[in-house]
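FAQ: What does the model actually see?

It sees only this:
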Amino acid sequence: MKALLSKTTGGPETLSYEDVDSPEVRPGFAVISTKAVGINFPDVLMIEDKYQMKPPRPFSPGGELSGVVKAIGEGVTNVKVGDRILANTGWGGLAEEVLLPANRLWHIPDSMPHDVAAAFILTYGTSYHALKDRGHLKAGDTMLVLGAAGGVGLSAVELGKAMGARVVAACSSQEKCDLAIKHGADAGVVYGRGPFDRDGQKALGALFKEAGGENGFDVIYDAVGGDYAEPALRSIAWEGRYLVIGFAAGDIPKIPLNLTLLKGCDIVGVFWGTWTTKNPELFAKSVEELLELYAQGKVKPHVSERFPLSKGADAIAHLGSRKAMGKVVVTVD
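And it is asked to produce this:
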């Protein structure tokens, strides 16, 4: 079978597309014939050894996929051969066949195409955990989403609206803001591209404060980090919740803690991957709730680009350029 492999540390250009042995099924596991793979920012970081998890090489990137069950091992009862499934894999998805623990597989409805299914679990799972469990978002709250046109950003916009919040989308272009508004955001804010000097940060903070109104934002969803974080935090409401999702801007920000004192606010870390392993029952419940929201038409991934497996490196490069809107998906024939 074919797979995209990371054999050495580096960017997408270091990945190789080659033949590897097909996986053999074993007890408690299932072999999946891959149909589509969602590309996410951790894939960009992982091949450069900049992510929290560093799998041994060679490995295939790809942290979420959809496919069809090809074989099941002894003791597997939750899926059968021929079932359509989605899964979060951590890594390993960019291959024609993947061996996965059966308890990490979820049935998908017949109405859900494979490319949409492959763009679902990681982004919507992250955002649902962030808003529900960590941000305690409630109806009537006002929320700011940084990087609102990206994969996790759009999922946060849709889920925020489904949970009854007023959502302001912050993006680097009007085109991206328009996409977020199309997916439910109540308003959009266009920010410039960093890095910013001190005057630039003050101007950005004023922009966010104006968008937040007199009371500020009850929840701020930050998947961008860098020079955007402190200006955004300055627009938070009293006892607001600032959700740290990731650092797409590249730099990990340094926050003046006096701001948390003056605002009585919380800075809350969100690491969905570890949460799923520590809380498997809550994770399972959240997946069922998200699939129900999809069935109700309240959430739907926006797949903007599709690449074949042979061009999987280009898909990762495109996402890393920060020009992608919504989800980038690799399809597997």
